[in-house]
Amino acid sequence: MSSAIYGFALAACSAAALASAPAALAQSDGHPARPTAGAAPAVRVPKIQMRTLHNGIRVAVLENHEFPVVDVSALVIAPDLLDPPGKEGVAALTVQMLSEGTATRSADQIATAAADLGTDVSATGFFTITRYFAPSLELMADQLLHPAFPQAAFDRVKANTIAGLDRLKDQPAYLASRVLANAVYGAGNAYARTPSKESVSGLTRADLVAFHRDYYRPRNTTFVVAGDVTPDQAVAALDRAFDGWAGGGKDGAVTPPPPAGPGATRIYLYDRPTSPQSVVRVGELGPPRDTKDFFALDMLNTILGGAFNSRLNLTLREVHGYTYGAQTAFQYRRIPQPSTFAGGADVTAARTDSSVIDVVAELRQIRTTRPPTDSELSFARRSKTLSLPLDFATVPQIAGAAATLLTYRLPLDYYDHVSANYERVTLAEVRAAAIKYLDPDHMAIIVVGDRKSVEPTLTAAHIAPIVDVDLQSKPTS
Predict the structure, then answer these.
(1) Owning domain of residue 458
(2) How confident is the model at residue 26, as a pLDDT?
(3) Does residue 271 fall inside a structural domain?
(4) Could you tell me if 236 and 310 lie in one domain?
(5) pLDDT confidence of residue 476
(6) Is residue 251 part of a domain?
(7) Looking at the 3D structure of the chain, how many domains does it have?
């Protein structure tokens, strides 16, 4: 399943937007006015210093001696896109099993060793005080390099996964994400595939062993080390811990064939009888993360649905009271893979048709009759720049920011120029981005709700043709 869509969270709002949310005054168009934000503070990010281990693994070091702590993470390119057809779930279960025992430690011994260090140590990272950097790294390396995949633990993890998939059938947000993925990417497309009860039930211990052997290799791994450590110290410790890690394996950086997109706009209605709410989602394909329009798109999304005071949230929540929150987002993947534009809200069932009408109207108006304004651009710019320092408040956050650059293959000096890049965005660029990347005539509209109560009003509204998602096309997980 596409993590881009499944990770869509309607309650998320930027810290800067929340800070500016109170005391909404009416504007001439009926929407509450946006307060004026203050000056943006400077963003200070440690320089990313790149090194290479003896076995070829790249290491990004962010030296910061302000506090005696170190954060380490292993970025292993082994996504669920690599799951063989019919074996969806291999990548996810492999990650879960890394902490279930190694060639020399049981799961209990791993937990005890981590408790002795006073921190959580997984196969892909840890955060600890400086004095425990080396022993934590050794424990991490043992899990990453030498997992035993014990059969009893595998049986338990698989059973828990299947039980979790059964529970997801009752989650309307999950159902909406599955229908949206199929509509945007196409059923069976690599981006739309997801673990199911059937695929996970068929997995064996040997499948996980093979996946680990093929993809958990130096060629697919990058380390990020941040905190109270120098580059030389980090490289020396990593070389000791990962000495002898064999090369070879397969390249994990796959790029599936591009999906066709949703085609002409349709409403995909999934029946959830007696549901008091409807889940409304819209989606279409977006550009890759390295698009030259990224900053204009980010500003556009902030204006449309990326902040508490965005148009969509003000309309559906503040003006009409249909929902507790509405949001839009561009969900990005590793370059050169496409992004996904997704948006929507959980709304009261009786207002499903009105909510869909308003969502589509906001998408149309922002690119035609009511394009972004100077004041909205100023608000979006301040929302983005004011919130930037919060992304670098702790050592783990600094490490995470570096990991984002490496994951998306962005320039290492990206954060040195990010504020200036937001400041350079013009109103004309934001308006052009709306016209170029938002297409209400070619997007999927998903409604998960009580068909008997919502279908007649949706039909009468003449928004778009309705496709009833039947039992055969429903998710089987």
Answers:
(1) 258-473
(2) 47
(3) yes
(4) no
(5) 40
(6) no
(7) 2
- Residue bearing the bigger pLDDT, 184 or 387: 184
Closest CA to 381 of 34, 45, 85, 27: 34
Question: What's the whole-number mean pLDDT along residues 179-195?
Answer: 92
The pLDDT tens digits of the residues spanning 321-361 come to 999 999 999 999 999 999 999 999 999 999 999 999 999 99
| Pair (262, 222) in one structural domain | no
Q: Is there a single domain that holds both residue 207 and residue 263?
A: no
Tell me the pLDDT tens digit for each residue of 4-13. 443 443 333 3
CB atoms within 10 A of CB 409: 13
Name which of 21-30, 52-61, 235-244 the model is least confident about: 21-30
Task: Measure the CA–CA gap between 225 and 230, rounded to whole angstroms.
Answer: 9
Domain shared by 288 and 176, yes or no? no
285 Cβ partners below 8 Å, 6+ apart?
A: 184, 259, 261, 262, 338, 339, 340, 341
Q: Give the CATH number of the domain where residue 333 resides.
A: 3.30.830.10
Residues 245-283 pLDDT 10s:
988 999 999 889 889 899 999 999 999 999 999 999 999
**pLDDT of the residue at 246:** 85
- The span from the CA of 231 to the CA of 234, in Å, is 5
Q: How far is it, in rounded angstroms, from Cα 433 to Cα 427?
A: 10
Q: What is the number of other CB atoms lying within 10 angstroms of the CB of residue 288? A: 16
Specify the pLDDT at position 32. Answer: 58
> What is the distance between the terminal CA atoms of the chain, rounded to a whole angstrom?
11
213 and 115 co-located in one domain: yes
Task: Return all residues near 152 (Cβ < 8 A) that are at least 6 apart.
Answer: none
Same-domain status, 328 and 222: no
* Residue 77 domain-assigned (yes or no): yes
Residue 104, phi-psi category: left (phi > 0), alpha (psi -120 to 50), beta (remainder): alpha
Query: Of 181, 211, 241, which closes a domain?
Result: 241
Do 196 and 283 reside in the same domain of the chain? no
Tokens at residue 315, please? Answer: 């309309």
278: amino acid identity, one letter: S
pLDDT at residue 285 in the model: 97
Q: CA angle, 234 as apex, 230 and 238 as ends, to 5°?
A: 175
**At residue 17, does pLDDT exceed 90?**
no
Residues 86 and 220 in one domain: yes
- Cα–Cα distance, 21 to 379 (Å, whole number): 12
| Cβ pair 75, 95 in contact under 8 A | no
Instruction: With beta carbons less than 8 A apart as the criterion, state whether 260 and 329 touch.
Output: no
Cα–Cα distance measured from residue 297 to residue 421, given in angstroms and rounded to the nearest whole number: 12
Structural domain ending residue among the three candidates 215, 241, 267:
241
